[in-house]
Amino acid sequence: MTKQPKIDYKNIPTQPGIYMYKGEDGQVLYVGKAINLKKRVASYFAKNHPDRPWTAILVGLIREIETIVVNNEIEALMLEATLIKQYQPRFNIKLTDDKSYPYIKLVSNEAIPRFTVTRRHSGDKATYFGPYLSGRAAEHTLEFLRKLYGIHISPQPLRHRDRACLNCQLDGFTCPLNNEVDEQAYQERINQAVSFLQGKRKNLTKDLEERMAQAAEREQFEVAAKLRDRLHSIEQSTERQQVISTTLEDYDVLGSSQSGHTAVVSLLRVREGRVNGQKTFYFTLVGDETASEVIRMFLLSFYQTFTDIPPLVAIPTEINDQLTIEQFLRTLTGRSIELRNAERGEKRALVDLAIKNAEAKLEMKLIKSDQAFTALITLKELLKLEELPSRIEAVDISNLGTSEPVGATVCFIDGKPDKNEYRRYKIKTVEGQNDFAMIREVVLRRFSDTSRPVPDLFMVDGGPEQLKFALKALESAPQKPKAIISLAKKPDRVFFPDRKMPIPASKNNKGLLLLSRIRDEVHRFGITFQRHRQGKKSLEK
Fold first, then answer.
1. Are residues 391 and 535 in the same domain?
2. How far is CA 541 from CA 481, 534, 537, in A?
3. Are residues 260 and 280 in the same domain?
4. Pairing outcome for strands 242-243 and 274-284
5. In a 10 Å sphere around its CB, with 0-12 CB exposed, 13-18 middle and 19+ buried, how is residue 272 labelled?
6. Do both 265 and 355 map to the same domain?
7. pLDDT in tens, 366-398
8. What is the pTM of this model?
């Protein structure tokens, strides 16, 4: 048994900052913040931690401690959130479904302002609303606003034309594309849509009633009828929302539930005294984290991306550094944010409702994923992995001779396909039919995308040679998967880096069957894209 090297932490500074624990290969195991770095780090090594076994495991793996000193606790908190997102440390709580959530984007610096749905929050001068749980929800919202206000939706810049667009003709709006409406009047439509997206809907009904009366007075009965239909849509939408408050407050309500290595956070959004939305977020736990720690990590990891943070967030339990996190949120939004531990009254009733939602979602997840988790546990044992491979990705190349070669990657979360994380790649740098070089290109491009989390397991479709070229790509990539293998077929055999012989496994091994299923899925996905490219090329001839 190798003796653990002694860690020298006595010279660590006493100022506020963050500390990073690193393992044998320099991999970041844990990121934390402290008001007094030396005191906080020393606390890990001063006891055996019988009440927190994961801490004892962590301490046994530490080979190096890196610290970064900052000016105050707020800066430490912000740096902690950034580094956790960057390194995805093994012993920090992780957002399981850390996919790119869709936003509604308003591009206003073009000749004709437009709305679009995007999954990239680029940090540009555009205005973003969201995130939304699905692209479909964001698209339905925009379609509703298009019919309500006559705004334009497009992924590309809009250009002037000779005639009005079909949507404006059908819905009875003057069209900005052929200058039927001046810039100021169209901007007013944009402003109304923005108010709607911001939740400011108090004057909607009054505005539509006034426009309907004006249209009827001018004997524009068709326009009045359309305005009446839009008014009914608003009223029906409002009626479906549950009135829960005697005041017209805006606030968020959080509740959580956890079991084993899975935690769920349920977010209820209350706007103008009504519940108008619910979102669910899943986290992978390390071991024995409390509900308070789960809520804290949610606020750090996810509220950074929210564009609509209300002045009050009701939480089920007090957080250790609650005041510091309030200041952190204030820095993000530029205004005061209160985190309130709701203990009684309407807000406590809503917190209990959020907890009930979280419990129901967790139960559904565990029931649905029972077989999948069995396969993941078997796979973990087969590959001798340190942790359950919650996120598995696979890559494949598809080509027909030298024509239109493409690459594809798929992603499985907790043993289930997550199609929002599938990606297609046109081969750009490889000439001829060199599948090995194509694998290297696609793997390099995949792990150069630092906006996406790294997989716990990355699989290459093929044998040792394909795996070798994937490893070459990773040498220059800014990110690396936690583990990488290749899967050859006929029969299915698993290869590890630096190992000539495949891992022995029976053909009925559930872990091997899961890998086979993922391999078949990435093959199907790649071929579909390649055939689409080939068909498109044939039509262009």
1. yes
2. 41, 11, 7
3. yes
4. antiparallel
5. middle
6. yes
7. 666 667 777 888 898 899 988 888 899 999 998
8. 0.45
